[in-house]
Amino acid sequence: MGGGKVSKAAVRPGGGGNAAGREWSEGYQGGDAWAGSETSGTSIFDPVLCELAYSWFCPQGGTILDPFAGGSVRGIVASRLGRQYIGVELREEQVAANRLQGDQLCADLPPVWHIGDSRNIDRICADVDADFVFSCPPYADLEVYSDDPNDLSTLRYEDFRPAYFDIIAKACRRLKQDRFACFVVGDVRDKKGNYYNFVGDTVEAFRAAGLHYYNEAILVTSVGSLPIRVGRQFASGRKLGKTHQNVLVFVKGDGKRATEACGSVEVHIPDAENADLGEEL
Questions:
Q1: H/E stretch holding 87
Q2: Is residue 77 within 8 Å of residue 87, measured between CB atoms?
Q3: I need a surface site. Which of 6, 55, 66, 273 has the fewest CB within 10 A?
């Protein structure tokens, strides 16, 4: 149960001034969600978002648990940043593609991808004590990744939701106390054009698992051809186009102790002169 189809599309270099994302992405070829590529026709997980999430919310040398492993991006970035990555993915062909990428790029600390149903993550990863739970789950039935009946993307939403809650609860049991979790999600429409409230359900699932809702950020994605594609649906049904994903951060235990476990990060604080200039602008 992953966040993207098997893909061989080349990933464009990461942006945002982050060296690790750019350093390896020029040589990366794999699939994931959601950085997006207008030229390749596939979606890939943003490597710079990975770098920020790991640097901010996971201790150096920590273990990352990903219940919807999908493509190889999250595992490769974790390895390059000195974190042990452990993912669970249903599709054997996707895991084979991930492992190929991992062997090529992560000789010193190879990511681990297990083939299996994430609903069994408590047994598959019974010996894992995670420092960070990080994933991009299937967006309900927005994109069906296989014809396997165990694939969550094949389920009706009323069946998807309890399975999704169960996987989150089991993954969070493997998370250490006073640690963070992060899911990258976006809302999805049903067949009638109404939102399922997938983002809200994700928050509810983590709260039901005993975690606190701690942060939300908006990942702005490329507009690309969206204005062209959304024109007809807006004219006929007033549906707006989306160019963002929701980055949801949760904490198990105490936020201050979780922050201490992650260590310090470099924070640039503008000096008084620049701050005044910003207020004038």
A1: strand 84-89
A2: no
A3: 273
Burial (0-12, 13-18, 19+ Cβ within 10 Å), 218: exposed
CA 92 distance to own-chain centroid? 20
Q: Which of 51, 100, 48, 49 is nearest to 71 (CA)?
A: 100
Helix boundaries (H) for 125-208: 157-173, 198-208
Q: Among residues 8, 20, 81, 70, which one has the least CA distance to residue 45?
A: 70
Cα dist from 242 to 74, 188, 200, 224, 279, whole Å: 24, 10, 17, 11, 30
- Euclidean distance between CA atoms 64 and 70, whole angstroms: 14
Residue 98 CB-density burial (10 A; 0-12 exposed, 13-18 middle, 19+ buried): buried
Residue 277: which residues within 8 A CB-CB, separation 6 or more? none
For residues 22 and 111, the answer to whether their CB atoms sit within 8 Å is no
Q: What is the pLDDT along the chain (281 residues), one digit of tens a residue?
A: 544 333 322 222 223 333 444 343 333 333 343 444 443 444 578 999 999 999 999 999 999 999 999 889 999 999 999 999 999 999 999 999 999 999 999 989 999 999 999 999 999 999 999 999 999 999 888 888 888 888 898 899 999 999 999 999 999 999 999 999 999 999 999 999 999 999 999 999 999 999 999 999 999 988 888 888 888 888 889 999 888 999 999 999 999 999 999 999 888 787 765 655 555 55
